[in-house]
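Session log. Operator J.P. requested a structure for one protein chain; no other inputs attached. Running the standard single-chain path with token output.
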Amino acid sequence: MRNLKNSLFYIIVTGGFIYLMYRIVEQGKLLEVGRKIVSPSSNDSQWVQFLSSLFHNLKHPLALLLFQIITIVLVARIFGWIFRKIGQPSVIGEIIAGIVLGPSLFGLYFPDMKEALFPVASLGNLQLLSQIGLILFMFVIGMELDLKVLKNKANEAVVISHASIVIPFALGIGLSYYIYHQFAPAGIEFLSFSLFMGIAMSITAFPVLARIVQERGIHKTRLGTIVITCAAADDITAWCILAVVIAIVKAGSFVSSLYVIGLALIYVLAMLFIVKPFLKRVGDLYAKKSNIKKSVVAIFLLTLIVSAYLSEIIGIHALFGAFMMGAIMPDISKFRNVFIEKVEDVSVILLLPLFFVFTGLRTEIGLINDIYLWKVTGCIIAVAVVGKFLGSALAARFVGQNWRDSLTIGALMNTRGLMELVVLNIGYELGVLSPKVFTMMVIMALVTTFMTGPALDIINFIFKTKDAIIPSEVKNRSDFNILISFGNNEKGKSLLRLANSLIKKETDTANITAMHLTMSDEMHAYNLEEYEKETFEPIAKESKKLDQKITTIFKATNDIETDIADIAHQGNYDLVLVGLGKSIFEGTLLGKVLGFTTRIINPDRLLDKFKGKEGLFENSPFDDRTRLIISKSKTPLGILIDKGIHNIDKVFVGIFSVGDVFLIDYAQKLIYNNDSHITLLDNNELTKNNFIVENALSAVQLNYQENIEVIHTDELNKPFMQQQNLIIFSLETWKKLVDEETSWLTDIPSVLIIKP
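Structure written below.
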């Protein structure tokens, strides 16, 4: 009855008002009498009118800007992904994407399309958006700096960092002496040109460096701490020097710039002694609350905009104000995390690629069109490498580092990345750098960033060492080492319980290593230790409950699957245990999802058969990550499909083929260490026809009569399987059983799939 009333009300109201609107429009046409009405030509067809309207909409500034953003973000992500896959920072790929979309490639071969996509009139909007992105990004960079490390390592860090600025700065000024006459823009004083060349040579890309250190697993080493501290000190010093250089360039002379520098000092002091305590007070008030109010977020973001605005009108650039605001943010991880999460995704994914493309539109590789210009570019690269690489390395050696660590510090400090592009664009906008010099310097930024990874590999090869992250307990080699790699805490605890059941009585001769890998682009240097502590805290509690000593590995990486395989191989682990990742189950081809060759399965029948929260097949298809781990692993690998495993008292071990005999070794370990009751499958035909299987089954039955039960294939059924705590199969048997859609596999407990 209620639904009928609602329907009648809906029909009366909508119908009545639609009729009312129709009558008003009809009467309104009478008002057109005596007025000149402009309408499309009656000669044009409706289709032509539609196309004309569509074309007009496409050329609208907003539509064009949105299309530019879509194109830029897609191309930047593709190139970033490609360069990550070859072991390079994604920022290099994004910079190259910008150059590709600019006049150097896209504009060279498709000039009309380039002009249609990036008309000159639209570049102003693109530039403004990119500058907003940079302001937000510099805010994040300021927050990423952990100023506490400067206090702990200030002595060595300041020496190395300042040497890595002064030496390349001096060499940059020296280089400008030789190229000023030919390459400096008309009307630019030598002082301005030389200062920008010097600061461009001195920049280190702190974000890129921090992620390389994380990915190499050296962030917890003494070397990692020193180089992160050096980069932080370098960043702060270089941006302060840049602010002074900008002031000098804008003022026209050093004396005139003193007024600007004076205002800048007042601004900095106000930020440190007025704004910072105010923000800390606000932060302390909301530090323990579960949610941060939008009004509080508004206060901080408004302060960011005011800071950037003041630094811009003073004459030291808005980016310095954004960086300064980030650096004085309350030292409360919760606060910093909230703002990084809110700001970083928008700036890095959406707006920063606009900056890369805008830089690419300014970079014309075609301007370097003869051998001489390429020689000059080579000289610029050589000066940059000698100044930054050797300057940092020699300073590190002077303060007591060995040659290997000194050269590593030099290679890392030579990374320039995005920060160099920021400086170059400022110089270009101020008219200090000509298009040719700008292009040469962009090439230098790419080369010096690209060479960091290979340089580190060469240094490690020469000194015959690797960035060690394998714990000493494993290096000293126990009889049986297990590596568990977990993504979330619950899976980690289940894997630890399983590993413990395999070695709990062999504590003197066995070892468990718990490893957590995280994507480097999701991590920040300032809260790395805190994130690691939070990650391993539940695992540590579980290990105490089990009375099981563990060692830990934490590493930020850009290739989790490869690192799991490499660390397992380098550590000579006897078994690697991983949890099955989130399934990708489309319900179309089970074989396609599993990554194996199977026949086509009716999706409706399959979904009906295996649906339900407790259904094993809901989690059984291997996702892309698990398949990659399987393919890359050279170490025995166990994949746990966890259904909430706690006790491992009853275990079924399926011996379906000769290749499954190795599973008996794991069964014996569970019996000896965990006193588990093991049910072995005795495949009648296999036992009769193969003496290896027959002898293995007979031996284990003889040794462990009380803990071993043998059943035959015809005794396998769903009720029996549901009584077990854990089911163990070999990888090949699991693939075969899934391919055959074995009915008793549904609704069974946790499964361990082992690849020998």
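Operator note: DSSP finds 33 helices and ten strands in the chain.
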